[in-house]
Amino acid sequence: MPRIKKATREYLKEHNRSLVFKHLFDHDSISRAEIARITGLTPTTVSDIISDLLDEDLVQEVGVGVSIGGKNPILLSLVEDSRWLIGLDLAQNQFRGAVVNLRGKIRQMVSLPVNDRDGDEALKLVYEILDRLIENAEQPIQGIGVGTPGLVNTSQGVVLNAVNLNWKNLPLEDLLRQRYRLPVYVVNDSQAAAIGEYTYGKDHRTDDNLVVINARHGIGAGIIINGALYYGDGGSAGEIGHIVVVPEGGLPCRCGKHGCLETVASAQALVNRLRSLASQHPSDGLPRSAKEITLDAIEEAFVCGDELARQEVLETGRYFGLAISSLVGILNIHKIVVSGDMARFGEDWLDAVKDAAAEMSLPGLVKNTQIQIGELGSNGIILGASAMLATNYALLFKREPVLNP
Ligand SMILES: [Zn+2]
Fold first, then answer.
1. Does residue 404 belong to any structural domain of this protein?
2. 273-294 pLDDT, tens per residue?
3. How many angstroms separate the alpha carbon of residue 286 from the centre of ligand 1?
4. Is 169 helix (H, G, I), strand (E, B) or coil?
């Protein structure tokens, strides 16, 4: 019995500490009294926890707030550089890693081109980035978060299948934990993008639910429900890129099927389509040679009002809208964020997405749905991967990096 009591007491202490820490994380500055008021914890409990957090250098006193009766309260704030984390983004052409602080500020970055490397060679590239970041960091790193393309078993940190990297059942989490003796999280890139937007995008943390659709080489979604990433039973919730949207005569997809969302709405699909169309209908805004028709060239033509470029870019927006109408119908989540390569086409593209979503959804459902472009730009996946650790308050509390049990 006493042992159970002790375990319960320790669990409660850790739970309360996480609760207090969450409010410090969510506010620029906040007083002990305000934390007690929001959490319902007693002032003594809050003071004790703050005292522990001050000892651990996670929190500092930053000034005096306005009194609502009694003496002026002391304001507390997170020490944003008290813990450093690493976020990795294993993108199609380039692997990027960064040392990130608790407020999502990047302190150091290493990028390496992939140059078609795959298998063990691609894994070596991951090690090279991490070696360099850890070697040059001015203080210990608390953990590593990875956003990888492909299907991931998140509970075991295993990359089940990443076609372009030729990784099958790769135990990435175990490999990194053994090599660096640090806690490691592995999620897929869309899930990382969702955590990034939710944690560091303005105002998102005030919502309980959020869907982030990430469009790069592939398309995927990360789904946040009640403030936490929803993984699904197999860890792969949100794989919307392979929903068939062209049931008859669709293009072949890298998954082996035909007519998937990725074949018509990804950046690669757009580039391929304009390369083939421009050879039949030369346009003034696009380069003559197919090889020179890149996403940058398409963006330039789109901005200049080139008709062909505009038509095809907006068409991808319509397919996004179609996918969003399914998500809205199933989840009824009010805020949907789109991020990644296609977001560069801005408000005009977003309007096409919104129009199509409105047209294809139940009017009552879509009326309350906000669709917006992500705020974190190209660093969203790095920030999301590191945020997997930044929001693990129990992990942060321990100053010395330790392995999870
Ligand atoms: Zn597919």
1. no
2. 999 998 888 777 888 888 999 9
3. 28
4. strand
Distance 190 CA to ligand 1 centre (A): 16
Q: Which pLDDT belongs to residue 140?
A: 87
Distance (angstroms) between ligand 1 centre and the Cα of 194 equals 21
Residue 185 Cα to ligand 1 middle (Å)? 26
* CA 209 to each of CA 192, 228, 241: distance values in angstroms, whole numbers, following the listed order: 15, 8, 21
Strand order in the sheet with 30-31: 30-31, 74-78, 59-64
Which CATH number fits the domain that encloses residue 20? 1.10.10.10
The residue out of 30, 48, 78 marking a domain boundary is 78
For all residues of the chain together, what is the average pLDDT?
90
Which domain covers residue 31, as residue numbers?
A: 2-78
* Residues 228 and 359 occupy one common structural domain: yes
335, amino acid identity: K
- Reported as a pLDDT band with limits 50, 70 and 90, residue 163 is confident
Handedness of CA 101, 105, 108, 111 (dihedral sign): positive
pLDDT band at 1 (very low <50, low <70, confident <90, very high): low
What pTM was computed for the model?
0.89
Report the pLDDT value the prediction gives residue 405, as an integer from 0 to 100.
Answer: 38
The CA 402 to ligand 1 mean position distance, Å, reads 40
Same domain, 209 and 185: no
Are residues 340 and 212 both part of a single domain? yes
pLDDT tier at 404, thresholds 50, 70, 90: very low
- Cα(252) to centroid of ligand 1, in Å? 8
Residue 103 shares a structural domain with residue 26: no
Cβ neighbours of residue 66 closer than 8 Å, sequence gap 6 or more? 72
